[in-house]
Amino acid sequence: MIMKYRDKPAKIAGYEAMLKRLAPNHPKRTMISDALYNHVAGIGGEERVDDALSYFEPDYPFLIIQDLQLPNRAQIDTLIITEDCVIILEIKNLGGQLRLRSNPSALDQTALNGQRRFFRSPVIQAETAKIKMESILKSFNCPLPVETAVVMAYSSQFIENVPPGATVWSADEVLIQLNRRNIHTRLLTPAQMEQLAQSLLSFDLEYQLFPLSTKYGIPLSDIEKGVFCPRCQLRKMERTGRRWECKFCNLYSKDAHLEAVDHWFMLCKSTINTNECKNFLGLTDLDAAKRVLKRKGLIEVGGRRNRTYHQ
Ligand SMILES: [Zn+2]
């Protein structure tokens, strides 16, 4: 049973919105575009593993949590809970020639065009997640041991120099490897497994990626305001009457600002008031801002004078 599905599209939309609204020479741009690159590259691999696991039907109970966020910046791509252990899958989707280096550990990638990049070692990432998971399980008095496997999206993605003791599978063999496992000792009942999953998910709920300005320490004044044209993307629209107009591609839109309000929540703050909305969208009066926020169907909090809106 899957307890939580991953929501990568929301993260990607957030990073894309930030890149759209940061100046080309902004110091945090590289960090944001690296995060976007990693998320986009990761998606293909995670989809392949999710697909493989959809055929996982062992004769014992199991729970799956996709994309679990734990305290202290620990993130797990896929977590499988069974009656006798917890399995962490660290999923990678990287082409080219891959080699693990040690002292210090890194994954050395030489792409087909010869370009070389270094990544955090997935073996070290999985081992670090294991240590953090073990300490969380201990705090819950949960007796389950933790196992890890690095999963490569395709069997052509071969890692050289894997240290002894580390497990690396390809997405194609995840199902076979998991089916080979037998339950040795039933340490938890199905009800206890579910309780454990719910406790782990409560960490996930506390984790907030948005607003990205807080996560990346970007002042709100660095985030470009305005409504972007949905057709030519990088041009700003102007308000003419109750419509938005792109002077560049002549597009008229009644609701182009709705995306900008989404950007506000992803990038700036978790709440918005009419004044912030007016400034961010470039509206001329507060009534227009109020209409926009009402139309967005947001939750209203507070009285007339200090009303804020939430998603
Ligand atoms: Zn346009």
In short:
This protein has 311 residues and is α/β, with parallel strands linked by helices. It is built from 9 helices and 16 strands. It comes from Planococcus koreensis.
Structural account:
Pfam families: NERD. Residues 41-156 form the NERD domain. This is NERD domain-containing protein. InterPro entries: NERD. This protein has 311 residues and is an alpha/beta fold. The protein has two domains: 2-206, no CATH class; 225-310, no CATH class. It is built from nine helices and 16 strands. It has helices at residues 8-21, 29-53, 122-139, 174-180, 190-206, 212-216, 257-268, 274-281, 286-295; strands spanning 2-4, 63-70, 74-81, 86-92, 97-101, 106-110, 116-119, 146-152, 159-160, 168-170, 238-240, 243-245, 252-253, 271-272, 299-301, 308-310. The chain has a six-stranded mixed beta sheet. Strands 7-6-5-9 form a four-stranded mixed beta sheet, with no helix packed on it. The chain has a three-stranded antiparallel beta sheet with strand order 11-12-13, with no helix packed on it. The longest helix has 25 residues, at 29-53. The relative contact order is 0.12. The mean pLDDT is 92. Bound molecules: zinc ion.
Name a few traits of the molecule:
311 residues, alpha/beta, 2 domains, six-stranded mixed beta sheet, four-stranded mixed beta sheet, 22% strand, binds zinc ion
